[in-house]
Amino acid sequence: MLSQSLQQKLQLKQKLSPLQIQTIKLLELPALELDQRVRKELEENPVLETKDNDEETDDNELSLSDYYGDDDSIPSYRLYVNHHSKDTKREFPTFSVKESFRQNLEVQLGFRTLTERERKIALFVIGSLDDDGYLRREPETLSDDMAFRLGLEVDTEEINRALSIIQEFDPPGVGARDLQECLLLQIRNRKSKPPVDLAHTILKNHFEEFTKKHYDKIISRLDITEEDLKEAIDEILKLNPKPGGNIDDSYTDRAQQVVPDFILDLKDGEFVLTLPRFSVPELRINRRYAEMLLQAADKSTRESKEAATFVKQKLDSAKWFIEALRQRQNTLLNTMKAILEFQEEYFEEGDESKLKPMVLKNIAEKTGLDISTISRVVNSKYIQTHFGIYSLKYFFSEGLMTKSGREVSTREIKNILVESIDAEDKRKPLTDEELVTCLNKKGYKVARRTVAKYREQLNIPIARLRKEI
Questions:
Q1: Is residue 362 included in any domain, yes or no?
Q2: How many whole angstroms separate alpha carbon 277 and alpha carbon 87?
Q3: How far apart are CA 58 and CA 318, in angstroms?
Q4: Residue 263: enclosing H or E segment and its boundaries?
Q5: Which domain holds residue 82?
Q6: Scanning 14, 294, 371, 393, which has the fewest C-beta atoms within 10 Å of its C-beta?
Q7: pTM score, two decimals?
Q8: How far apart are CA 40 and CA 358, in angstroms?
């Protein structure tokens, strides 16, 4: 016999309000993206409009309280939020307008005597080069693409002939299929002399040993002196592994200007923290739609009610957006002030050794905000100081205890690690174990795996690959 029972479960679920959702989304945006987001909202919500700073305030202008009543939770700023001043200067990303890498090759192709078919094939190959100037696609794949896109039946031999022509163009090394070929194309253009000839031999016949820095093997197999090898390597180091980088591509290479979200000045020994008056315009409620809602409220037709509902929704959205902008500004300022207080000694001079260990939790505790909120504020935000512009992420790092009991940031330890590697004998680079000993002698107690992790984060290769002669 089956038993039946009733069970009650109490479950708490937190549902974010539209205002909270809006605020979270705006918090994540840096200055430039915020500008774009506000303009998008202006385009999509007819209830929102901009107000010029020079425009006189209309005493008869309707306020949100006319629609919602005095009991509704309307913020004190009422109709608008100000984000810029009269003398605001718009700042935009800057773009490099230079000759395209591929355009440069196409110009050189124009000076070659080719049939129309050969020119089409060569142009297709140029278009298939990557941004480094390499052709990393197989001829068979290019042949299939040309058949599909150009309606040309092309064999691999024709593609290779076109590639050989392109490999004669400037910059030297362009059109190579791998790094070895790229360097060989360049070294062949050098005037013949013993170090250049030896460099060519090394690149052609001992490339793997060279990339792995097995210098003893190269010296033994070629029966050369260490000085001979050093001179040859000096010639190789003059070559460019990314020939496509010589000419900026105006279609893909954008030199974007970093716009700071905060400005910190030090005046008479006092910090002055401000949010720059960026190009986000002053927002307010569109009076025409406000009047429409008031008029519709006095009518009972279906169309009037639908219109009233539509405008009411847009007014809600406008109210939430304006309030979210205000909350974003307050949250950003409170977070940055907490960071400034925590790292006050560092911000006085920008001395990295004064940077204290600081994690998101530290700032969350100082501000009373969630860690997730602090993370959103810190992400993609920059501050302009009297000693440079920095990402907010730069000021966060974990800490370790020194032998003397002083807590230091991992950034300081990484700097000491870099200094130790820079000062090492490149003929006998320091292993991770030796780096541990070196750091311990300077008072920093770290494990070998910690040194390895920091070295990898700094993109510093292992000892064998740092070896020089």
A1: no
A2: 9
A3: 20
A4: strand 262-267
A5: 18-89+278-324
A6: 14
A7: 0.52
A8: 36
